[in-house]
Amino acid sequence: QVQLVESGGGLVQTGGSLRLSCAASGRTFSRHAMAWFRQAPGKEREFGAAINWSGGGTHYADSVKGRFTISRDNAKNTVYLQMNSLRPEDTAVYYCAAGSYSTRYLDYAYWGQGTQVTVSS
């Protein structure tokens, strides 16, 4: 079983930046692709960004491309999501996930508890 714990969420102003972290334990971290999903109130879970096991491949949703950067540090068993130029529509609970390299939530077997990101106008 893989345990994922997100941190770094909070309240920021429009145009601001925030970096989310996801610490993994329980299995060999480097064997998993990692991703960030988000879910706003009343909306379905939405794919944000994914990174493959080596960190050499990344994929982003169009809504965050050019603004968000996903990275991983396998030595620290940690995945990051650097979020720049934040907008109110980025407000959501952000979830870290581990599994197969994909944009589909069903392909990720392990999930964190989520961290709230709120972007004020």
Description of the molecule:
The structure is a single chain. With 121 residues, the chain is mainly beta. It has strands at residues 3-7, 10-13, 18-25, 33-39, 46-51, 58-60, 68-73, 78-83, 92-99, 108-111, 115-120. The strands form two sheets. Strands 2, 4, 5, 6, 9, 10 and 11 form a seven-stranded mixed β-sheet that branches. The chain has a four-stranded antiparallel β-sheet with strand order 1-3-8-7, with no helix packed on it. A hairpin with a 6-residue loop joins strand 5 (46-51) and strand 6 (58-60). The radius of gyration is 13 Å and the shape is globular.
Largest sheet: 7 strands, mixed
The Rg value, from CA coordinates, equals 13 Å
Relative helix content:
under 10%
Terminus-to-terminus distance? 40 Å
Provide mean pLDDT, rounded.
94
Shape descriptor? globular
Q: Give the tally of β-strands.
A: 11
Please state roughly what percent of the residues sit in beta strands, choosing from under 5%, 5-15%, 15-25%, 25-35%, 35-45% or over 45%.
over 45%
Q: How many helices?
A: 0
| Helix/strand/pairing category | mainly beta
